[in-house]
Each structure stands twice: as C-alpha cells, then as structure tokens.
Design a protein that fits this description.
The chain is an alpha+beta fold. It starts with a strand and ends with a helix.
C-alpha cells in the first residue's frame, strides 16, 4: 500500500481526485486546499496556489495510477511521490479496504 502525494492547480484538483477514484485507480483521495508553493522553474522563482492530493492506493495499482496522473495532470513535470505505508503498524481494516478496491 502507498500514499501518493501530488499537488495540483486549485481549479482542477477535485476533478483529478474524482477521476482517479471513479476509474478505480485509488481507494481514496483527500484534497487539501490552501497550499502555496514556491519553486524554481526555468530559472525563475515561481509561486502558485495549489491543492495537495493525498492518494491511497494498493501496491498493485501504483504503476497504473502514476501513469494516469501523468496523462490527466496539466503540469509538464508532475509531483508524484509514492510513500510506502507500514501496513504492519496501520489499521488492518483500512489496509484491507484499500486493497479490496474493485
């Protein structure tokens, strides 16, 4: 099981979240609004308002999820950070639910 972190523009974050769940690529996506990101891009400091997506996904769907995010996300370089979950220390019912995704 993984939690994937992905920031997205405020105006499309919810659409991406809904699409990933509807397509059964993610068990759950939390949209956390109100982020402000600072970064260098093409030699200049950029500032953007974004929403964070916290995506819960079974290990067997991580590759398909990552590919789909790249297809539907507007950024040229997409933040996809796949963090493995310690399933032994996580709630077993929740882990089973994520893995059971139809």
């Amino acid at each position: 099981m993984y939690v994937v972190l992905c920031n997205a523009p405020v105006d499309i974050a919810e659409r991406i979240a809904r699409q990933l769940v509807e397509e059964r690529l993610a068990a759950c996506v939390n949209v956390v609004p109100g982020l402000k990101s600072f970064y260098f891009w093409e030699g200049a400091l950029q500032t953007d308002a974004e929403s964070a997506l916290w995506i819960k996904v079974a290990a067997d769907r991580i590759d398909a999820l990552s590919q789909r995010i790249r297809e539907i996300h507007p950024y040229q370089t997409v933040e996809i950070l796949a963090l493995p979950v310690d399933v032994e220390r996580s709630d077993p019912a929740y882990v089973a639910w994520v893995r059971r995704l139809p």
